[in-house]
Amino acid sequence: MRTKYFDLIDQTFDFPQNEFHLREDHLFFHGIDLMRLIETYGTPLKFNYLPQISNNIQRAKGWFREAISNLGYSGNYYYSYCTKSNHFSFVLDEVLKNDVHIETSSAFDIDIVRNLYNTGKLTQGKYVICNGYKPQQYIDNIAGLINEGNLNVIPVVDNTQELQDILAKTDRDIKIGIRIASEEEPKFEFYTSRLGIRYREIVPFYKAMLKDNPRVEVKMLHFFINTGINDTSYYWNELTKCLRIYSDLKKVCPSLDSLNIGGGFPIKKSLAFDFDYAYMVREILTQVQRVCTDNDIPEPNIFTEFGSFTVGESGGAIFSVLHQKQQNDREKWNMIDSSFMTNLPDTWAINQRFIMLPINRWNDDYERVLLGGLTCDSDDYYNSEQHSNAIYLPKYDRNKKLYLGFFNTGAYQETIGGFGGLKHCLIPEPKHILIKRDENGKLQTELFSEEQTAADYLRILGY
Predict the structure, then answer these.
(1) Which of 315, 319, 354 is nearest to 435 (CA)?
(2) pLDDT tens, 280-338?
(3) Does pLDDT of 387 surpass 50?
(4) Would you kindly state where each structural domain of the chain is located, as residue ranges?
(5) pTM of the model
(6) Which of 18, 138, 199, 433 is the most exposed place for a label (fewest CB within 10 A)?
(7) Do the beta carbons of residue 358 and residue 27 sit within 8 Å?
(8) DSSP 3-state assignment of 48?
(9) How far apart are CA 300 and CA 283, in angstroms?
(10) CATH code 3.20.20.10 for 73-306
(11) b/e for 302-337, b at 16 or more Cβ within 10 A?
(12) Dihedral sign from CA coordinates of 185, 190, 194, 198
């Protein structure tokens, strides 16, 4: 009878996979010995494997390069990184090794952009796409960046007033984009995105306020839907409507030459994940090309703003099981040495599932369990994987420590969780390490931040 944890995984998924394999009953991630990591740094522990950031950027560039070549597509492709996914300097340092551009979402993003430019990491002429609703500080910072003249700044207009506010803050001519307020998926509680200008108002807006304004050049139409890029009738329907608007606007606006299709490439959240990225890229460009041919207009440059796809698969978190509680005949709770709500907040906020695997004891028998965090909140738990309605792990044994890994957690978890700040029930921020490879491919680890201490919390709280 096949009752070991390895047997469960082996008969459920294709395993090993590109990033996961076993050696002597221990899990390795991209060749990283996770047990050695635990022995060196302890748990709870967060890490970022930085080479995966460059790897994903180059994969996406390759898919677009291949599709453009095969289709004879005449526009260029520009990869932009969506900074809100992960603002840390170690992420931007790795991202900018790959000849990419930047997309911003708020006022302080512009200060990061300035820092990157002043240190030579973001080079002259790179695009800075300024998205989001723009309060006065954001407007001021964008205008300041335009006035400096070092970067190719394109504010994406979210509403008609923003344009007037930016023009009032600069004497320079400006290039802008216009964001479409896309319709949301039918299951949403509202019909239209709060961001952008409605479909039917875009061409009238251009004719009334932009066409005869010598200081403004419309370069980009921006399209993004909340559910991301997926092979669904909803996505293709919204893309079709976007391309119709692009065609209508291009016919009256000769300067328009770029289509920004936003971000939203899915990332691997289960061992069963299967997504044909190359097909999606090819099909999107095919649809754009067809509409341009039908309307006798040039094919636009394509911009993307991949955030989670860029950085998500670089991140991980490792916890240990402290204790098991048998709460009734069917429910066993494995208590971890951290909190899901505070350190993997998307598991609580949007029921996000990450790849969860034990680090050790793969040759032990398994059992069905629930996972509980350390806060006193009843919502601090993790109880299902995408492939089933339960979690199975090696059987709890108080004499044999069990370690758990959550993988592909590199997007949003630190910013939503409030890195370095207060946490629910004062659960500390885990130790955080960076993993790199040197020029010979040898792994190197670096401590980015220590685990929060009581002194850290007392200082924040004013004691």
Answers:
(1) 315
(2) 999 999 999 999 999 999 999 999 999 999 999 999 999 999 999 998 888 899 999 99
(3) no
(4) 5-50+313-461, 73-306
(5) 0.95
(6) 18
(7) yes
(8) strand
(9) 15
(10) yes
(11) bbbbbbbbbbbbbbbbbbbbbebeeeeeeebbbbbb
(12) positive
